[in-house]
């Protein structure tokens, strides 16, 4: 057993731990000791003070979660707590870095989050939160620090909506750590985004209007087969690109003229049942025959050509981009469908359910007793309207023999 004197830094600590005889590290400049764990990969920081003729040891953090720089920067705060005879709050982290890295790791293994959501959290923490808040002590994080280091610099570079999303992730990380009692006080609990920026976030104007339907359907007619079907389904039902690209043939109940999208692939984690009209039945049949002719007999409507499974989000967006010539996105198709449904007089609650927006328990009860037939009527009205504008599958669907009705 040996106590070794070094100048505290994470690099120096790692070098010292290679020696199995070292059990404790000290730096004569600071009233700190680092006790090395049996694993040789971690240690415990202790604040050493002298009181009533005795040395007083108090654990104040764990290395490497609390790095040498962070513990040294936090010494003034720890010393104040000690002088006031307060119990020093032992936390896993002294700075924001440890908390944010913990939340990042936690979020990436959260099965309830979509791949896209995990990617957004990772980007926000790695690129925007850690670089500016990582070294800030938890005890010093306040309204001014958040405004000066994060909100105000970001608003000069990004849209207010994006800044609010980054702040929401920061708030969520601190709230989660507080709930799990990893920190005793949430320094952000009383703060709201409007405390920093009160300007309302403007709604983005739609990039597709009802007057664009003819051009849109014409573009679908000229698109490659898979792209045409992918985009037409999103237009025909207002489905999200994430759930549309993951559709499987097993979801299609041809006998009962419906397609059931399971909860695990929807954004709201709620199952969505959509009626299949005569028009969509013919489109799906044509699409299936094209797949079989190409030798595909797998599970997905939109399979990846280079590996097993469905097309990924990047490829799906690329297909939309090619057809739209970068003028609109998949979400614009969803907005267009919702707008046209309103123009056609579709009931508000029916439209909300078709979009699979989150519902209250009262709304859900209303759906079960009323909306099933109303939804089918609305979809048939919408598909009939689309075909009255232009048939994007002129080579495969004869409108004279395709009525928009139950199969």
Briefly summarize what is shown.
This protein is of the alpha+beta class.
Shape: elongated
Q: Major β-sheet, in short?
A: 5 strands, mixed
CATH architecture of the largest domain: Orthogonal Bundle
Structural class: alpha+beta
Q: What is the terminal-to-terminal distance? A: 82 Å
Order of helices and strands: EHEEEEHHHHHHHHHEEEHHHHH
Describe the structure.
- This protein is of the alpha+beta class and 407 residues long.
- It folds into three domains: 2-83, Double Stranded RNA Binding Domain; 96-195, Tyrosine recombinase, N-terminal domain (DNA polymerase, domain 1, Orthogonal Bundle); 210-401, hpI Integrase, Chain A.
- The protein is built from 15 helices and eight strands.
- The strands form two sheets. The chain has a five-stranded mixed sheet with strand order 1-2-3-4-5, covered by helices on one side. It has a three-stranded antiparallel sheet with strand order 6-7-8.
- Strand 4 and strand 5 form a beta hairpin.
- Helix 4 packs antiparallel against helix 5, helix 5 packs across helix 6 (143-155) and helix 9 (225-237) packs across helix 12 (313-324).
- The longest helix has 29 residues, at 361-389.
How would the blueprint of this fold be written?
Elements: E1 2-5, H1 10-17, E2 22-26, E3 32-36, E4 43-51, E5 54-63, H2 68-73, H3 75-83, H4 96-108, H5 115-133, H6 143-155, H7 160-179, H8 213-222, H9 225-237, H10 241-245, E6 252-253, E7 258-261, E8 272-275, H11 278-293, H12 313-324, H13 330-343, H14 348-354, H15 361-389
Parallel strand pairs: 1-2
Antiparallel strand pairs: 2-3, 3-4, 4-5, 6-7, 7-8
Helix pairs in contact: 4-5, 4-7, 5-6, 5-7, 8-9, 9-11, 9-12, 9-13, 14-15
């Amino acid at each position: 057993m040996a106590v070794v004197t070094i100048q505290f830094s994470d690099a120096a600590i790692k070098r010292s731990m290679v020696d199995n005889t070292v059990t404790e590290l000290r730096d004569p400049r600071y009233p700190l000791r680092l006790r090395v764990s049996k694993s040789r990969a971690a240690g415990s920081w202790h604040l050493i003070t002298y009181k009533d003729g005795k040395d007083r040891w108090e654990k104040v953090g764990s290395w490497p979660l609390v790095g040498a720089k962070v513990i040294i920067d936090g010494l003034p705060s720890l010393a104040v707590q000690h002088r006031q005879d307060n119990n020093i709050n032992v936390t896993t982290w002294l700075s924001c870095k440890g908390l944010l890295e913990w939340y990042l790791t936690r979020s990436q293994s959260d099965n309830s989050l979509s791949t896209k959501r995990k990617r957004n959290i990772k980007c926000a923490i790695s690129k925007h939160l850690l670089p500016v808040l990582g070294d800030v002590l938890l005890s010093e994080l306040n309204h001014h620090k958040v405004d000066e280091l994060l909100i105000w610099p970001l608003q000069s570079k990004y849209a207010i909506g994006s800044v609010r999303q980054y702040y929401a992730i920061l708030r969520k990380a601190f709230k989660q750590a507080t709930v799990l009692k990893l920190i005793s006080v949430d320094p952000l609990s009383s703060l709201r985004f409007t405390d920093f920026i009160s300007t309302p976030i403007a709604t983005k104007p739609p990039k597709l209007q009802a007057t664009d339907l003819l051009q849109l359907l014409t573009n679908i007619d000229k698109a490659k087969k898979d792209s045409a079907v992918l985009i037409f389904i999103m237009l025909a039902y207002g489905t999200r690109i994430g759930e549309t690209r993951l559709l499987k043939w097993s979801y299609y109940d041809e006998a009962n003229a419906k397609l059931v999208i399971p909860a695990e692939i929807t954004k709201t984690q709620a199952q969505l049942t959509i009626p299949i009209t005569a028009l969509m039945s013919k489109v799906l049949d044509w699409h299936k025959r094209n797949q079989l002719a190409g030798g595909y007999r797998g599970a997905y409507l939109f399979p990846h050509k280079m590996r097993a499974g469905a097309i990924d989000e990047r490829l799906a967006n690329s297909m939309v981009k090619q057809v739209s010539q970068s003028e609109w996105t998949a979400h614009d198709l969803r907005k267009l469908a919702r707008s046209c449904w309103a123009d056609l007089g579709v009931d508000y609650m029916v439209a909300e359910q078709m979009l699979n927006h989150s519902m209250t328990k009262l709304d859900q009860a209303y759906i079960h007793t009323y909306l099933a037939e109303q939804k089918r009527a609305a979809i048939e009205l919408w598909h009939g309207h689309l075909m009255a504008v232009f048939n994007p599958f002129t080579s495969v669907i004869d409108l004279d023999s395709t009525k928009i009705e139950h199969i």
